[in-house]
Amino acid sequence: MIKKFWTMFLAVGMMCPLLRAEETAGPVENHPVKYVFLFIGDGMSLPQRMLCREYLRRLQRDDLRINRLPVNGMTTTRCSNRLITDSAAAGTAIACGGKTNYGVLGLDPAGKRLESVAEVAHRNGRKVGIVTSVSIDHATPAAFYAHNPSRGNYYDIGRDLIASGFEFFGGADFLQAKGKDGDLYDLAARGGYRVIRDKSAFVALKPGEAARTLVSCPFSYAIDGDDTNIALAEYTEKVIAMLDNPHGFFLMVEGGKIDWACHANDAATALREVFAFDAAVEVAYRFGQQHPDDTLIVVTGDHETGALTLGFAGTAYSSYPERLQRQRISYEKFSQQLKQLRQDGKLTWEAVKPLIEKNFGLKCDGSDDPLALTASEQERLRQALARSLAGKDKLQDRQAENRVLYGSYDPLCVTATHILANKAGLGWNSFSHTSLPVWTSAWGRQAGCFNGMNDNTDIGNRLKLLVTPLRP
Ligand SMILES: [Zn+2]
Predict the structure, then answer these.
(1) Looking at the 3D structure of the chain, how many domains does it have?
(2) pTM of the model
(3) How far, in Å, from the CA of 316 to the mean position of ligand 1?
């Protein structure tokens, strides 16, 4: 008993130097943090993170950085008028600390303007950066600078972006650049932004060169390996250098494509997007190691997407996440290949079979390969091919059966990703969001404020207290 006591005492004592930077729950008022990072995995909840953990374990690799942060909690996500939220209402809750209705950005249900943590930080003399792997006017990033009753009003959201005056924006192109007041890129340049449209100009950016920077470049899925893209980790590294200043900064980085891959029920693509997101957190974490008393990193999701489950009736108590390695391209790229075949009049089972084998590792040869397709799985693919052949108009006929089977995606592509997921011991039950709470993790100064069970509005409200002016 005494030996056990001393072992525990020594173990706790050894942890103390770590706890100094991480702290535990306590009052946050008047204790601003110089460098505040918020990472949002769109559509990322417990299943997405646990899938990565198990996949990496099978490959004998370290778990994600985000899964190894010391402070952890669960975060509820419902919005004002629905149990299942969307990225606009969830983003508003996280950014502004207030609940709103589905689809609304930066306003409460009565239409009253809510101030975001990015706006509070900027008002307090800090520099602000907003980065995403999807378009920079998409709902999650927009929740930090826009105030609009509809997330779909892209032109007005773009105007809000320019009016924010935040120091750095990075992501894919505006969804609606042209509008009544002119082209958003021209307006941004007139508003003092240095507008960057390709990676080489981004790489050449130096701190102090521009007061305001807008990087708007194409962004494809990590699994498709396009090195003309700027990875989230590259963005994070650059933005830290661009924003560092004596008054501190607030940086939000969104892994927006995690959500899109989960909408499409593409587990292998979602996995790679979480890895790319995690690599960006790793950059901030390394920076934090250099500034442990001045850095806070918060990682959360806005909602779960796809109703991903780590278990499937066909594999019972067995799991094979490592089988996702066999997928080579995203659902998006595979759908483009199928579309091309359809346009060329060559979309046949004989043409599709080798593509399925090459892109997903699924075998049609009846071998004893664990990814060999059974007769019924091949029949599912043939039925899906028939639906794919019918073309897009038929797919959007909103028939309940098609909607449940394929969502709005190419039937053959969705069926291939579903079969691979099932063989990996995974299930998907929706093409939309779910109400599962998300997993929030934190490290650094004031990290303890994010411990335990919270609501998504708590994250915004606590962050707003941490971006007040630094004490002299
Ligand atoms: Zn979302």
Answers:
(1) 2
(2) 0.93
(3) 30
